[in-house]
Here is the input.
Amino acid sequence: MSEHVLSTKLYYGIWIALMVLTVVTARIAFIDLGPFNTVVALVIATCKALLVVLFFMHVKYASEKLVKMVIVASIFWLLLLLLLSLADYGTRYVRHG
Amino acid sequence: MATAVITPERENYLNQEYGIRSWLLTVDHKRIALLYLISITFFFFIGGFFALLIRLELLTPAGDLVQADTYNKLFTMHGQVMVFFFLIPSIPAVLGNFLVPLMIGAKDLAFPRINLLSWYLYIIAGIMMLHCIVTGGVDTGWTFYTPFSTAFSNTKVIEAGLSIFVAGFSSILTGLNFVVTIHRMRAPGMTWSRLPLFIWAHYATSIIQLLGTPVLAVTLVLVVCERVFHLGIFDPTRGGDPLLFQHLFWFYSHPAVYIMILPAMGVVAEIVPCFSRKRIFGYKAIALSSIAIAVFGFLVWAHHMFVAGISLYSALIFSALSYLVAVPSAIKVFNWTATMYKGSITFSTPMLYAFGFIGLFTMGGLTGLFLAALGIDVHVTDTYFVIAHFHYIMVGGAVMGYLGGMHYWWPKISGRLYPEWLGKFAALIVFLGFNLTFFPQFILGYMGMPRRYWQYPPEFQVLNVLSTAGSTILAVGYVLPMVYFLWSMRYGKLADDNPWGAAGLEWQTTSPPPTFNFDHEPEVTWEAYNYDQIPAPAEEVAVER
Amino acid sequence: MSDSPIAMEHGQHGPELRHHFATAEQQRDAASLGMWLFLGTEIMFFGGMFCAYLIYRLWYFNEFAAGSRSLDIRLGTINTIVLICSSLTVALGVRAAQMGKRKLLVILLILTLIFGLAFLGIKGVEWYAKYKEHHIPGPSFDASDLVRDYPQIHIDQSHEQIYFSLYFAMTGLHALHMIIGVGIFAYLLYHAAKGRYTPEYYTPIEMGGLYWHFVDVVWIYLFPLLYLIDRKPLG
Here is the structure.
């Protein structure tokens, strides 16, 4: 896929970043941010995922756009499932409990 | 396009190796295609058998042939077998497997062993389904709606669900193979804009298989878990939502219908230019509309749920999106028709099936627009109108596309010609039988006859009798090709490389092809469908023995 | 056939080149695209469960929050770190293969396996704790401990069971993928030790690595979604 040999320094750097973000997300969960707790958690998770995908999986150094298109398309399709389902669930009247 | 005289002893993929091991352990995409051909034909007749029993029961208003529970099983097994074991694999696994490498100038698919694995998964799934059938079957409808399937049905839901799970993986692997092959294995000069539209159709189909089937798979897993552990995910008495199952199920099963029809459209796009002796009209439009159908097809699933309890707001959204998905299909129909305009038409058997496809698919598709309209759907949903609608597309469309393709490429696959007059005769029988079977069902549905009912009020009987009569004629039409194809393998006239004078790389190798498809790697310097450069075939396309 | 551009003399390529490919590069590019497409299907496979999770979290937030609090956040965080470390060893392993460093590759693959098994072990510990607390869905499910612990919110036990059903379904599916990953890496370790992977041919290491990283990414999302729903101090 890619012939780039990345430096160990880069890999260790990404690893440190991932560990830091993990600790941060666990700690922030205990702080009351109201509805933003979920947002922050997902944003941090996405940052971690991006680090793994772009660097550990070499997507940043991919020679053609096709791999990026496969990833984007898959995520887009998942979002279709989630968001269009929400179009129903978000507009129904539901009794809880 | 001069063709050499063929000696029957020349080595090709069929005679290169003999013995059952050479077939069961083959990695040759052409042999795998034939393995699939035998298996899906078998399941087609199983599904057809259930259909005949249904039609027999519906000859009379009373429920006098079978019990109600048995009738539930009949329509369930008919649907499951036909959808998952015939329609979804059919064209991709048989014609796609055979032709995709040939059409792009490759020696095989990208992953030949995964191709064989895909067939074995299909067989394992098929054995599980057969076992399920003979040990009592399932009565939930092919749609497995919860909570009946998870909490109340006493039938073999788990086994059927797991069988379809395995069949789904077969489908995913086929799609994966095609996408990688089309991206990576095209011969020099075979650019994207020179690809046959059959390839574009299979590319689009494969995208749907890859993105949709996994959702069905995980949903079936959840159904099995729910049934075993009573989790409550789909059970309203435990806080679950039965509609969640339907959302997840239809997220796959609506695009699945495009898996069933897109390959048939690809077949038609090959047949029509050949028998009009003209370049296809609107190549780019047809290619892009295949992709558009694959994408838009994922946006409309809840139109199967309009009266199930989704919010009105979301029903409006899905209704509007459902109108949108009709547009690319219509574009194709216009382009095929425009191709024929001022063409030199030959009414060969494949062309008869293509004509049948275009007419019947158009009718089926238009009735889909009726169903997309909320006001109409409320009245005709869950009636025979819906059944007629999807059978026009699945049978009048997909099956006719499949048969047309089988006839068109039969000389390439087998090296033999089928008897043309019999082919035309069978095509006409299929067309007549089909319309007699399913047109009355539009009227029945409009008049209010519900689907999945084993009894009906007496005023519906005449139309039901017509429908059953049609189904027996249709059955004859389906048996005939099987008989004469088999006959032709031994007694048919030998075919030369290109009996139809068709465009496409598959016609530039021998009939049947050698194991590695081409003697020399092709290099493509011409545009697709270059019928202005290809002479029409000679009157007598057969070669003397 | 020797003049055909697609027929290769046997001396010109290693035994790994399959005959339907014209070049080793084509074979590697095909494998790579195939693996990425497969990972795309896996996104949709897990995605169906994420959809169910989304809907029920919206409907039954209280029960989801209570169930989430009953999970051991220390073990969850440790497991997340374990997986991240395993991704590091995998990435370094691919690099070792690229550079032909066989011994280093073997060591890194062994470390990866250790991390993977550690993850599964810790998961087993967590599940066992759930078993003791009667939080496993089914006939013995009993969330009355949560009802007692959170008097300030109304907890419906059947809704709580839905949370735990999704917890076990999602972590179970993830663990199954981990087990398969461990199997794959055991296979890679065996062949790496025999010297099969070289700078010219290390595609299986690369593809196995992609799979492993994907399973890590799934966990990166599962951790906040299952463990961190609501950890705010209770007023």
User: Anything to note?
Assistant: Chain A touches chain B at residues 66, 73-74, 77, 80-81, 84-85, 87-88, 91-92 (CB under 8 Å). Chain A has a mean pLDDT of 90.
